[in-house]
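Quick check before the chapter quiz. The format below is the same one you will see on the exam, so make sure you can read both the input and the output lines.
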Amino acid sequence: FGITENNRILDIMDTKNGNQIISFDVDTGDFSLLINYENSQIKYNGFINQPNNKFHLFTLSLLNKITGYVENKIIKIKEPISPSSIEIISNSKVFFWDSLIYSSIHNLFILVDDYDLILMNMDFTDIVTKKKIIKDEFKEKAGYFMQIHLSNNEKYVVLTYSESILILRLDGLEQILMEYIPYLCFAAFSANDEYLLVGTWKNGFVLENNLE
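Here is the expected output.
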């Protein structure tokens, strides 16, 4: 969930018609429905805090009744929130992803689709870069996708798969590190990028960041 500028909570409500986005006032209990789609699935992708450009990002997944495939769209809700601040963004060339984050410094959408990493421009109209980050012969050993994280200085992208961790330099998508670690579920840099925090289903590790 996200917190708005006027201290309301943006959250995803599960209804009989699918996921919907609501704005909720904790003090009064009052809420309003912002998005209403039938048979929808919605994920919160985070809050982007840029000067004069603050917005919340969600991924909306809907079934295309013609093709029979699930297709993703981006829901962008700008601050201050009003009915006119809600924007639905899609691209016919990139219509599915497992996870999405946004780089405020580079003004890029960063998407993961299985073993592909895709960089899109800020308007989501053009593919800047698309790269297969794990070759076919290593997919089984790497495991399935779990999580993507961007370092706080936005220089590095960390991808967690169920059996491996992969670190790329965002500029050029150069591979810096790949390690096979069983039962992985989480990897992220600390708030000041001093450490890399790695979690498995059994153990947790705090590793010093020596990538610079």
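If your answer matched, good. The chain is about 0% helix and 55% strand.
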